[in-house]
Design a protein that fits this description.
Elements: E1 5-11, E2 14-19, H1 29-41, E3 46-50, H2 59-74, E4 78-82, H3 86-95, E5 103-105, H4 108-121
Parallel strand pairs: 2-3, 3-4, 4-5
Antiparallel strand pairs: 1-2
């Protein structure tokens, strides 16, 4: 168990991450090692990060997400972000130039369809250029 994060294996070599109120994005070191240990134990190839409970993605939260994405990529896991709220998406778009380094999907079902497609094409954790 990782405080502030709820992790659920959902099939298709995927794990669903739902952040809770206790998540402290200013302390990525406190989360990344146990998160990777969980993902490796479950032999995950995909992590779906569900942002439905996150009202705002600021610089600190974005840095946390990119650190998590980097850890996933190094470990052969692809991260897909789902359910980003319109205001959070707008705030994020003001912070970054270009596309985020992780994949995005409208909702968890769309993320799962993306994963099924990636699995069938052998794309795995490599997002390409």
């Amino acid at each position: 168990m990782i405080p502030g994060i709820h992790l659920t294996p959902i099939g298709d070599d995927s794990v669903l991450l739902v952040p809770g109120e206790g998540l402290d994005p200013t302390d990525p070191d406190g989360y990344l090692v146990p998160l990777l240990a969980f993902l490796q134990k479950k032999r995950a190839r995909f992590l779906i990060y569900d942002l439905k409970n996150v009202a705002l993605v600021d610089r600190v939260y974005y840095d946390w997400m990119t650190a998590m994405n980097s850890l996933c990529l190094i470990s052969g896991i692809r991260m897909v972000v789902a359910n980003i709220r319109p205001y959070a998406a707008f705030a994020l778009s003001q912070l970054i130039d270009g596309d985020p380094p992780f994949s995005c999907a409208l909702d968890v079902d769309s993320a799962r369809q993306t994963i099924v497609h990636l699995s069938s094409t052998g794309a795995g954790a490599d997002p390409g250029p």
